[in-house]
Design goal:
Layout lengths: L1 E5 L4 H12 L3 E4 L17 H10 L10 H13 L8 E5 L3 H13 L7 E5 L28 E2 L2 H17 L3 E5 L2 E5 L2 H10 L5 E2 H10 L8 H13 L3 E5 L9 E5 L1
Length: 257
């Protein structure tokens, strides 16, 4: 049995539930599918997708990862999934990336009879006050959620169609709401970030935290929020100052221009 999870935060809990022996079939997909172009996400070497993550990654944080091999490996593995013999289980919660992974796997198995299971761990509500990703559940508590459901043909086709639509739309940001994906540009997130800024200097991490804590529909990471701050600074909307000693942004301050 393959067990697929989105990101490293879920690994400890899932291994605790399925055991070390079954963990040989655990595969971690780390791409945050909620943000960035998906145009070539399934076409190795995934040059555009890799460049997006290089743009997001702060220049001052080294070493800079080489994203292309990992993205290409995921694309190749998923392309060959239908020809493998092992059933597939996707663990997911209310993270847009987790839901997109579920839909992506459904698309990979759209014409396959391979048994396809899901382990829903979320609330079904992606709002910040109610959402729950797999990695947010304490490892010792995750076993209570291990109630695998077989994904029937109708649901698989619906999920596959959602994935194909998300790839075709190729939005800058995707939010998961009411069981579907909604695309948008960066303007909404940028507006939240700007609203958190003032004409007076304040720590950039404080502003980023407001954006990260108040965004429904997808999880804003610190590097993504920092990238948007850098983009706004490049456009002259805000000014950044200081030395980003921790994660590239820890010592920075921001103010409106």
């Amino acid at each position: 049995m393959w067990h697929l999870v989105c990101g490293d935060m879920a690994v400890e809990g899932v291994i605790r539930v399925i055991g070390d022996a079954a963990a040989r079939g655990l595969r971690v997909l780390r791409d945050d599918l909620a943000v960035g172009s998906l145009a070539d996400v399934e076409r190795p070497p995934c040059t555009g997708r890799a460049q997006f993550w290089l743009d997001v990654w702060p220049d001052t944080v080294t070493p800079r990862p080489d994203f292309a091999p990992g993205l290409s490996a995921d694309a190749d593995w998923l392309a060959g999934l239908a020809s493998q013999s092992q059933p597939v289980t996707v663990w997911h919660g209310d993270s847009c990336s987790e839901q997109l992974l579920l839909a992506r796997v459904a698309a990979a198995l759209a014409h396959s009879e391979l048994p396809f299971w899901e382990v829903p761990c979320g609330t079904g509500d992606s709002s910040v006050r109610k959402r729950r990703a797999v990695g947010m559940i304490e490892p010792e508590a995750l076993g209570a959620y291990y109630l695998p459901r077989l994904v029937d043909a109708e649901r698989k086709q619906r999920l596959a169609a959602q994935w194909r639509a998300a790839v075709t739309a190729n939005a800058a940001i995707r939010r998961w709401r009411d069981g579907d994906f909604q695309g948008e540009d960066h303007s909404t997130v940028d507006a939240v970030l700007l609203a958190a800024c003032t004409p007076e200097w304040q720590p950039l991490p404080r502003v980023m935290a407001e954006v990260m804590a108040g965004c429904d529909g997808f999880f804003v990471t610190d590097f993504f929020a920092f990238w948007r701050a850098r983009e706004l600074a490049a456009r002259g909307c805000v000014e950044l100052a200081g030395h980003g000693w921790q994660h590239g942004y820890g010592g920075l301050s921001v103010r409106l221009t």
